[in-house]
């Protein structure tokens, strides 16, 4: 039997051991219960039948002697032998599975009867304890269930799945590095299935599958009820969490605003203003030799920017004294906790009892709502005041004002004008305009520090751009050497910033390539799950079931060699520049940092505008050095922010 088991696979070996255990238990029962005799006989017959299976031997006469000297002929014979063994093994696996299931079906009435008698029949001195029947029956049922479960998962690609809990244990063990954990699996299998207690996640990294989900069969993959249930407390019915008609209404309004030249020009002015404020803070830190947390500063800059561009209010978090920002802290805490819900099977229980992370989430959302509703009230009051004074021109044309007006006139078709809906609009645009942009800026700065050759090449492009643009505009640049005073330095920075606008920034090809390369390796949204309305088959043949989740993984996709070549893990901005020196685009289903299909990011151009505006100024006039020993790791939340911030020292570069 040893030779046979070696060639017929793990199920054959497992089922053989299981049948032997089942035979011994059935024998014990049969000694006192005639109804078990049939089951015992059937098990023994199955054991005897499989014991007599022919096993191919190398000395089998059909294949001749193994002493054959001709190596070519010998190789052919061995090949035939292995093929026959393989066919034999597969046949044995199928027969073993089929026979064992037949035995289970035959013994089911006996097991049920034994369980009943265990409760109803009193024990006698001449029979085994009635409880034994029950325990043996339960053991057989559980053992059979485990075997069938393992058999069903024999071809599954992904982490090992256990009954009831799925892959929860492995996922929790790797939670702090989940994105890299997925990279390891997706580099071997382009599609990976991860079972969880109440649902199943299918992770995809193949552009063909991504296009199918995000475009070809878009309607079958909404955000879904599961995702909404996790994120509802934070994002509500906002554009990132909505589906159907509500999503279409918000997208239509937002797309109209983002397409407006007025908004684009206004955004450029605001982004320049806050980039200069950030430059002033860095200049003082450089002079004082202070350590700064660039991620925190970027978060402040982008929050101030989105509040002014999106909601028409100034909140002043980037003031020189850097005031405490309770909203940002609460928003980040809420973001972390709702992300944890995706793998925490007890979050609903904790929410019900108001304990643990869910209690903290409730407190954080309260602070977030206080800030958000105050912004809404302020904008509504300003609109009312402008109308009362007859000065309609004072009504700001920001995104929030547009939604307020639509709600008042009924143009939105209902559902967007109440404060709760406006609150959801605000928070969704905050996460889009603050977190994603600040996160990308942080990773860009880290990449520039880690690749000094890239930083130097970028600085040369910026210096050449400055000279060319100053000549075009007839601007006499303020002399600014290493020993320049604060006033001269600030004036030179302001001059350079005045040369930056939407059109001129388009000339900075290498800067654009550096930002895009950062997004390839460190996408602001590292993974994006979708619900499944109906059963479907992905282009690679993977079956997905209704009620489950399909998640495309930008973080993993950017590191796959089958997407980007052998140097996929390397930071190389040159991959985005063609032979003519122009920017080279990639398929949005391969480079998914801004999504693709009907849900492609509306703020893509605005995000590039703000990032390039800030980085052009900072990379032209400053050098950064990471604080020695400072850990740079991502934090598990919906956005790929840095867990410990980005602490560094800054110095002027003129």
TrEMBL record:
Gene3D superfamilies: Cytochrome P450 (1.10.630.10). Heme binds at residue 601. Keywords: Heme, Iron, Membrane, Metal-binding, Oxidoreductase, Transmembrane, Transmembrane helix. InterPro entries: Cyt_P450, Cyt_P450_E_grp-I, Cyt_P450_sf. CDD domains: CYP86A. Residues 1-20 are annotated as: Disordered. Its cofactor is heme. GO terms for cellular component: membrane. GO terms for molecular function: heme binding; iron ion binding; oxidoreductase activity, acting on paired donors, with incorporation or reduction of molecular oxygen, reduced iron-sulfur protein as one donor, and incorporation of one atom of oxygen. Its main location: membrane. It is found in: Membrane. It is a single-pass membrane protein. SUPFAM superfamilies: Cytochrome P450. PANTHER family: CYTOCHROME P450. Belongs to the cytochrome P450 family. This is Cytochrome P450 704B1.
